[in-house]
Amino acid sequence: MAYVWRIRKKRAKRLLNEILETGYFVNCNFHPVRLTEYGWNKWDHDVDGIALTNGGKCSCCLVNCVPEPITERVAMEMAYVWHTEGDKGLAVRYGGYTPEAYDEFQRMWR
What we know:
Blueprint: H1 2-22, E1 24-26, E2 32-38, E3 46-51, E4 57-61, E5 68-70, H2 72-94, H3 99-109
Antiparallel strand pairs: 1-2, 1-5, 2-3, 3-4
């Protein structure tokens, strides 16, 4: 079990370095986020930031959520898509959804 945890921590550290380089990541809600702070100790492996879509604060765990690092250009593009097309635009353009699949998801979960 300790081996698995060491591997997960190593991957999380690599991911943190990528996010620190770019300064932006995609959170669990698939919104672009500007990095504001991070934690790296025995119990805290989080990245925190401000969503470029609605200005809300968010936090993602590097081990469990595995946020995706993105460049500033992609982050700004995603924010523009969200402001013009909403969550559906992000899901279709960046999340691999078709418009029909997203509509079905909306009907099932909202």
